[in-house]
Amino acid sequence: MSAAAAATTSSCNLYSKSKLSSNLRGSISFPKISRFLSFNNVRPCRSSWLLLAPRAAGKNENAQNDGDNEKREVQKQRVLQQPSVSLSLDDVNPVGLGRRSRQLFDEVWRKFSGLGQISRTIRTDDKEALDALLVREGPMCEFAIPGAQNITVLVVGATSRIGRIVVRKLMLRGYAVKALIRRADQEVVDLLPRSVEIVIGDVGDPSTVKAAVEGCNKIIYCATARSAITGDLFRVDHRGVYNLSKAFQDHNNKLAQLRAGKSSKSKLLIAKFKSASSLDGWEVRQGTYFQDVVTTKYDGGMDAKFEFTENGEAVFSGYVFNRGGYVELSKKLSLPLGCTLDRYEGLVLSVGGNGRSYVLILEAGPVVDPSQSRLYFARISTKVGFCRVRVPFSSFRPVKPDDPILDPFLVHTLTIRFEPRRQRPVEVNATMKQDLRSFKLILEYIKALPTGQETDFVLVSCSGLGIEPSRREQVLKAKRAGEDSLRRSGLGYTVVRPGPLEEEPGGQRALIFDQGNRISQGISCADVADICVKALHDTTARNKSFDVCYEYVAEDGRELYELVAHLPDKANNYLTPALSVLEKNT
User: Fold this and answer.
1) What CA–CA distance (Å, rounded) separates 583 from 563?
2) What predicted TM-score, i.e. pTM, was given to this entire model?
3) Number of alpha helices (DSSP H) and beta strands (DSSP E) in the chain
4) pLDDT-derived band at 439, boundaries 50, 70, 90
């Protein structure tokens, strides 16, 4: 093998993500095919290239050559008589050529979907038969996912830049696809393949959203507000996500009731504070981490109470002026018969108050022998006003480092502790003086979050890059509110925050997966769509939020510590190693 061929082979192997599957809208060129062959370790066979030696010409051959020469002269005359074609710069502009090739591809796809896929007027029996034939024996069998024909995915914002690619990727893999669009214009409908079930509705309208989630198993939310008006941002990016997640949760609960059971996506109610009797069993206690005899006489003391107010609120309030002191609210758990916390992945608390931080403590061990119990803790932060705090069991750490990790099956006591240390001022009126040693916590409910293996809801959010500074704060506020509502829903979620979107083929460059709003590059719409589809069945993507962009070199002194996914294997399984090092619920 020559040096040039060796260099070409090594460069092709660097990109192990197949371009044939990463961008459905691009055309396939010879370099892409050669890279695909190189990726699959397929090399041209040298023996297939044959060199034929010329033979001596005889008389019959000379006569035949004279006839061939006359035919060539006639063809040359016909070519010279044809009018000449002039080319301008616009005709060879790469952007224009790419746009026209993309239009041609869309037209071919539209005709293909009309011939090989299901018309919306076909009977149900014929539709099921053609579905099976298309997935198992059609041209898309190379990309089909096992069992995908039994999964219906609802794509919200199916006509958006990312949504259109998501729809085609799902169909190539054999999924049944429903699309929620706002208008039924023919121009909008023509953007989608014919086999897609279209639902007309508005994400801000709960009634239409309920009809859209009927029969769906998973949701990919690609919709975004088209304007910076606060009302549109709130309706699409915040309220829309809330309506979809709630309707999907209600749909799962309805199916569970029909099966005379309980939905695997339903939360388990541990405590709900709706009356004075709901406070029974909760105990208020005081304590100190250490006893300083000298400073004891200068301490101001501590006090706490838990009461049900006239406003119908359960309030845990008080103050701690002692050094090293704390107050806590504790109760032994009483779960329904047959329910254990090992079937759940964490806790969610709906609370309000003045924005203090607390320590959540779980006591685990045999109930009959308290001496064998072990303590595990996790710190939580609240906001001024009401909020929901999600605490996975994986975030609890043992008080004694030598103790084993938490086993939720053995949890029998829950404690909420307030301590003055590590309290930070909250953003309120600057003229108001804050005393970080006092607290007020309003409890609404405590629930356990269901566990699961896969993602139920994929949300395409944004990182804030590429947005005008004048509207960036409004957009991010609405996006983050939508993310929070999804995290509180109890569904398995994946939040993707891409950099500025670019209209170019996917699979061209390595990707960076990060957390912490540190990315600074853009990313292809096709790459974002590919991440959304892969996240549906990737267990490492469940309950994670992350930023993603193209690989880049950081400035000196500002090096990053993300995982660069170089797409290492034939199955394009780059998402699992990329997300395995990222934290959950961020």
Assistant:
1) 13
2) 0.60
3) 15, 23
4) very high
